[in-house]
Design a protein that fits this description.
This protein is of the alpha/beta class. It has 8 helices and 14 strands.
């Protein structure tokens, strides 16, 4: 399973990461062109630059090589907080930022777990928060993929040290096959999922899709089945951010029981870790 990397010409963080992959990590320019930009490569792994924003690059996986895709991008938030993030693209409800309505991409929970661990190891500071976000935005593609991001404002997107952290991690993910983990889905909680981030860093579980509290009303049995199908090859269970389910607790549990999907509250798993 060979990855490929995609950045956008419109994304300063992506170009920052690309330049470091080329200048420091040995991705060399080839004679191949894609979207009017040169393709770079290292040991058969290709780095592409797209003209459109990455979230609007529907179907790009059909135009490039690679079995799975790393989108290296900026992260933008009104809070402006400094962060390094990973997440799966896809839409639980309407497609308000690219992709297709009620369509999730295929997740790479183990790769994302190792990405977060590697970010923590390479960075080692406290200026940037390290987090897993919920599943959100485009593009709509069929190949498994993840976003790895620098946030949350232009001052961070173009920082050499921030770009080096993510470029280092992207290079590592490309050069090393991820281990196998027990893969889970998280339901409930905020956009920046504290439960998912804790599961990734403190347990044997790897998190793929995350459905936050603010879109739970759109979650139905079809979306749950799609999330399980697209969560990876080693699906174990759904982990519930119990407090973060709000008024949807009974409805969500009822759907999971109806579909025969194993589920557990994170708070109980957390207690088990310390017993």
């Amino acid at each position: 399973m060979k990855p490929s990397i995609i950045v956008s010409r419109q994304d300063p963080a992506g170009l920052n990461i690309r330049d470091i992959l080329v200048g420091v990590h040995g991705f060399n320019e080839t004679t191949e062109m894609f979207n009017n930009s040169p393709v770079f490569a290292k040991q058969g792994i290709k780095l592409y630059t797209v003209e459109k924003p990455t979230i609007d690059s529907d179907g790009v996986d059909k135009e490039i090589e690679g079995d799975w895709i790393i989108f290296a991008t900026r992260h933008q938030a009104a809070s402006g907080k400094k962060c390094f993030c990973v997440h799966v693209p896809g839409n639980w409800d309407k497609a308000e930022a690219g992709g297709s309505e009620k369509t999730l991409c295929r997740a790479l929970p183990g790769v994302m777990k190792e990405a977060l661990s590697k970010i923590d190891g390479v960075y080692g500071g406290d200026e940037f928060e390290i987090a897993q976000e919920c599943t959100h935005h485009g593009p709509a593609i069929d190949k498994p993929c993840l976003f790895i991001e620098i946030g949350s404002a232009e001052a961070e997107w173009t920082r050499g040290d921030a770009g080096e952290v993510i470029a280092n991690v992207v290079n590592y993910l490309c050069m090393n096959k991820a281990k196998k983990y027990k893969e889970v889905i998280v339901l409930g909680g905020g956009h920046y999922s504290q439960v998912a981030t804790k599961l990734m860093s403190r347990t044997e579980y790897a998190v793929g899709h995350v459905c936050p509290k603010y879109v739970l009303k759109a979650l139905d049995e079809n979306m749950l089945k799609q999330a399980v199908e697209k969560n990876g090859e080693n699906f174990s269970m759904v982990v519930l951010d119990w407090k973060g389910l709000g008024t949807e607790k009974s409805r969500v549990v009822g759907m999971l029981d109806s579909l025969g999907i194993r589920h557990e509250r994170y708070q109980r798993l957390s207690r088990e870790e310390h017993e």
